[in-house]
Design a protein that fits this description.
Mean pLDDT: 78
Number of helices: 4
Order of helices and strands: HHHH
Radius of gyration: 25 Å
Low-confidence stretches: 11-20
Shape: elongated
Number of domains: 2
């Protein structure tokens, strides 16, 4: 006589959250949108967003999505640059069009690589500043301020 295995217990609220493609303990696979929504909701994202005292930071949670949006904008710019280079090359109607196209492709690729680099550095700088602020806050609350080094 075989009986069905018992179902796993429901995970507590706020647990089992993972990245896209991962599974929760209950076996449910998270879509990228669900993983992002879970990540934003974790720890009261919207209450932190409207925190007028600025004691809670949202920069770390938004760094990944902002980077993805930035990469998407850069990719669209690359496509636009390639199409523009091709249309200019065709519009010349001469052999110089090939050189214009190659120049446009090189300029577009180098510009895109530079844009990705600058986007990454800018986001890392913001995250680093927030991390410093989070790490120095406990010292300030313990009365660390105002001491002189003698």
């Amino acid at each position: 006589m075989s009986s069905a295995p018992p179902e796993p217990p429901e995970p507590p609220a706020g647990s089992g959250r993972g990245a896209a493609g991962e599974r929760r303990p209950d076996g449910e696979q998270l879509s990228p949108a669900a993983a992002f929504a879970d990540r934003l909701d974790e720890g009261g994202f919207f209450s932190a967003l409207f925190d007028m005292t600025f004691t809670r930071y949202v920069t770390r949670r938004l760094a990944g999505p902002v980077y993805i949006v930035g990469l998407a904008v850069i990719a669209l710019s690359v496509v636009y640059g390639l199409i523009t280079s091709l249309s200019v090359a065709i519009g010349t109607g001469s052999a110089w069009g090939v050189f214009l196209f190659l120049f446009g492709v090189i300029l577009t690729v180098v510009g895109a690589m530079l844009a990705v680099l600058l986007l990454r550095v800018a986001i890392e700088m913001f995250v680093a500043v927030v991390t410093i602020a989070e790490n120095t806050r406990p010292h300030r609350l313990r009365g660390w301020k105002g001491r002189r080094h003698e």
